[in-house]
Amino acid sequence: MRGVVVPLVTPFNEDYSIDFPALEEHINYLQKIGVHGIFINATTGEFTSLNNEERKLLAEKGRELVSSAFYLVGTASTNTFEVIELTKHAQEIGADYVVIAPPYYCPLNDDALFKHYSMVAEKTEIPIILYNIPSCANPMSVSLIKRLALEYSNIAGIKETIDSINHVRNVIFEVKRERKDFKVFTGLDQHFLNTLLLGGDGGIMACANFAPELHLELYKAFEEKNFEMAMEYAQKLAKVSKVYELASSFGSAIKIAMNIRGFSIKPVLRPPYIMDRGEVKERIKQLLTSLELVP
């Protein structure tokens, strides 16, 4: 798995029920445009606002719909045994990978995090993508990532949602060089080209929900060694990533941008998240207009 992976939004109706027709439409669109992977129950998908039955149902529905891309399922939780349960379920339905963020809320040291991930890795066989997102969960050190990668062959890679190219560099140089099949993805649109240039494998980036053509063009240009074109698209992604600064949450920013671009996914978030409106929507529209992304 390389290239552009999309961490899906979860579409909701006005009554907060899951909008499955909109989910199907969006997955079909992403496959048609040619993304390399589709990731359900992601941070962008508001997985913390879903119960386990809904997460399993979404995982099963996604498995039915995804046919031309790698299929990833998020199985993170604060409860190790719940992570094992969700990971086993993803394995049983035939997902290609699971993505597991560290437990959040309770601070844990490297030994506790190693124990958490090792219990999951030992009880399942599906390839695991670690998910380092220190703004939301316990941070993962390079030494911990290396320890897990060298100990467990089914720990297959990492998504790095960290605004530090030095950290990503160290993971690539210290882990990937020692275990060449270990995948390193950025979770930040503005670090997509940086990560590829350092020897990483791609990006799992939320803005690809509403502007996947930018990510795909950058990746194509990089693969073809057209670095002038790759730089042009990297600058566009650096600008588009400012959408996160304009809203109160990732989900609000992405769903507003999708609404402006004409996607049928409703601008609805589950509580405790709220949708930004008015001035926020207008600022996001101005940003997208400057990038020629408004129909």
Automatic annotation (TrEMBL):
Locations listed in the record: Cytoplasm
This enzyme's EC code(s): 4.3.3.7
Mitochondrion listed as a keyword: no
Record's keyword terms, sorted: Lyase, Schiff base
A GO-annotated cellular component: cytoplasm
Active site location: Y131, K159
GO molecular function list: 2-dehydro-3-deoxy-phosphogluconate aldolase activity; 4-hydroxy-tetrahydrodipicolinate synthase activity
GO biological process: small molecule metabolic process
Keyword Lyase (UniProt): yes
Principal location: cytoplasm
Subunit structure: Homotetramer.
Protein name: Dihydrodipicolinate synthase
Lineage of producing organism: Archaea, Methanobacteriati, Methanobacteriota, Thermococci, Thermococcales
